[in-house]
Design a protein that fits this description.
Number of domains: 2
Mean pLDDT: 95
Helix content: 10-25%
Distance between the termini: 19 Å
Order of helices and strands: EEHEEEHEEHEEHHEEEEEEEHEEEEEEE
CATH class of the largest domain: Mainly Beta
Oligomer: single chain
CATH architecture of the largest domain: Sandwich
Bound molecules: zinc ion
Low-confidence stretches: none
Shape: globular
Radius of gyration: 19 Å
Length: about 300
């Protein structure tokens, strides 16, 4: 099938969310605490409706179930990726995700979670948390028991365009004043390690200290990212990450360029600008899929894109 499949975001209200998904992307957000737009998702907690074409009104999850041939008949049980845009007006809790093996055993056969972050925008003094300072598991457990959070976590300054790969077992947190495009494994399993002692409806949110201790990798090591940049006819393409679960690339197109879709599927997120994709108008905030066997897609205009595939 040679049809672009545009998706409609599903929104999540969060204590720490803001309104930038409405003001900057023009999304019809439900309120001024909108923390997440699930922009490419087949997850049961937020399954994106299809906006156009033969399957208009169905969801991505429905399409995956009923037309596996559009995704290369890979035999996987669920659509493997989930893309979100996150607007953190306040700090998110400090958390960690399990890997597939731990989640299978402890979370009803769910997938673990590997994720990656592209910083779309942030305040000049914005920071995030990636990693920790404990040398060994014993030291980690001691620091957690003694609540030495500020000694434990690694806080890093960030700027627009930075990219981080968050492997399972990595302590991490998005902090206030940050807009992020997150590409992740299709999973919703998170262990909360520390929540700045905040209260929600008068009570602290639940922490998952034992599971966190089980899954946090010691010592922390940064994943290698930003592996390769290619200058082509009308585009610059930077490969942000290639890992066993996904590849994510950043494209800057000026004039026209060809995207080759020779993967099970290709996700395209439009970060900036406007133009056309095989004649369809595209603009900042659009997200679409090129199905299996699509071949070449002509991108025209001045646009920045993130593409992802398995
Ligand atoms: Zn996470």
């Amino acid at each position: 099938m040679r049809e672009l499949i545009f998706l409609q975001p599903v929104f999540k209200q969060m204590l720490w969310g803001g309104s930038r998904l409405g003001t900057e992307y023009g999304y019809p957000i439900p309120g001024d605490h909108t923390g997440e737009a699930w922009v490419v998702s087949a997850h049961k907690n937020g399954d994106c409706p299809i906006k156009n074409g033969s399957f208009q009104g169905k969801t991505l999850g429905w399409l995956w179930e009923n037309h596996p041939e559009l995704f290369g008949n890979t035999g996987q049980e669920v659509f493997p990726l989930l893309v979100k845009i996150i607007d953190a007006r306040d700090d998110l809790s400090i958390q960690v995700h399990p890997d597939d093996a731990y989640a299978r055993e402890h979370e009803n056969g769910s997938l673990g979670k590997t994720e990656c972050w592209y910083i779309l925008d942030c305040d000049p003094d914005a920071t995030i948390v990636v990693g920790h300072n404990a040398g060994t598991k014993d030291e980690l457990c001691r620091m957690i028991d003694e609540k030495r959070w500020m000694d434990l976590i690694k806080i890093r300054p960030i700027k627009k365009g930075d990219f981080f790969q968050i492997e399972p077992g990595t302590v991490h947190a998005i902090r206030k004043g940050t807009l992020i495009l997150e590409t992740q494994q299709n999973s919703d399993i998170t262990y909360r390690l520390y929540d700045y002692d905040r209260l929600q409806d008068g009570k602290p949110r639940e922490l998952h200290l034992q599971k966190s201790k089980d899954v946090i990798r010691c010592p922390h090591t940064d994943a290698a990212t930003g592996t390769e940049t290619v200058q082509g006819e009308g585009f610059t393409r930077r490969t942000l990450i290639t890992c066993p679960l996904y590849q994510v690339d950043k494209w800057d197109v000026t004039g026209s360029a060809v995207l080759s879709q020779n993967h099970p599927f290709l996700i395209v997120d439009v970060l900036e600008g406007e133009g056309r994709a095989d004649g369809h108008p595209i603009r900042k905030g659009d997200h679409f899929l090129l199905p299996w066997g699509y071949g070449d897609c002509l991108i025209e205009g001045n646009v920045s894109l993130i593409t992802s595939h398995t």
